[in-house]
Amino acid sequence: MIDGLLLDIDGVLTVSWEPLPGSVQAIERFRAERVPFRLITNTTTHTRLELAQILVAAGFDVQAGDIVTAVVATARYLHGAHPGARVFVLSDGRPGADMDGVTLVDEPEDADVMVMGGASSAFSYDTINRIFRKVADGAPLVAMHRNHYWRTSRGLELDGGAYVAGLEAAAGVIATVCGKPASAYFDTALELLGLPAGRAAMVGDDITNDVLGAQASGLTGILVRTGKFRESDLLQGKGKPDHVVDKLADVPDLIRGT
Asked: By the 8 A CB rule, do 213 and 232 touch?
């Protein structure tokens, strides 16, 4: 039985912040039919408040409290595992209020912990190399997520997880991942949803980080054929979704029948 949902944003609700067909109406149905949901996203460009404002402007009935980001999960991890540490963050957005209380520094050489977020033009060879030196010397490597790529209106684009994999291989370390597919991230979202994993489903366009990650934490995995989805995802051999649907708009009817 599926009583509540965790929903990815990018590739499920929107692409380049434009609503996908039927996604606004799907959220309206979840509200009307009292299906609890949380938006659980590896997006690092915006704070929760900014994301809510963008989605509301696009027509979605959501609030900042409905959103759980990888940035929030990373801050929570840093407060617990590295209290008081100086942190260098390389990401496609400024952490802002979602990393309140974390001591951020502007240069890798001044930091105790290296944090990798979403990729951007700031991911230059010089900066990545400086991070590599710190990690090779023993600084912990933390990843907001492991996404290797995502889809925009221009097509597929490389994401921060590809750089994380390179740093891990070069420095001989394993990064601590705070966003999807980390089980702690799903656990946090489920706490906010107010449901156990066995009564919730994750809806995503990323078979590895969204669907298989959620299934490993006990959730039902629903893969949508939008966003970064490719038909070859269904042949990758690491596992398969519980359900595959064309778009988010198909999910309300799907969960009615479970």
From this structure: no
Q: Above pLDDT 70, what percent of the chain?
A: 99
Predicted local distance difference test score (pLDDT) of residue 207: 94
In a domain, 173, yes or no: yes
| Torsion angle defined by CA atoms of residues 176, 182, 186 and 187, in that order, rounded to the nearest 10 degrees | -60
Residue 76 lies in a domain: no
Using alpha carbons, list the distances in angstroms from residue 1 to 30, 67, 183, 236.
16, 23, 21, 27
pLDDT of residue 258: 67
Tokens of 45: 């460009």
Residues of the chain with pLDDT under 50: none
Range of the domain at 227: 4-42+181-256
Dihedral sign, Cα of residue 43, residue 117, residue 146, residue 151: positive
pLDDT at 109: 98
| Gap between the Cα atoms of 167 and 6, Å rounded | 30
- Integer Cα distance of 216 and 20 in angstroms: 28
217 and 152 within one domain: no
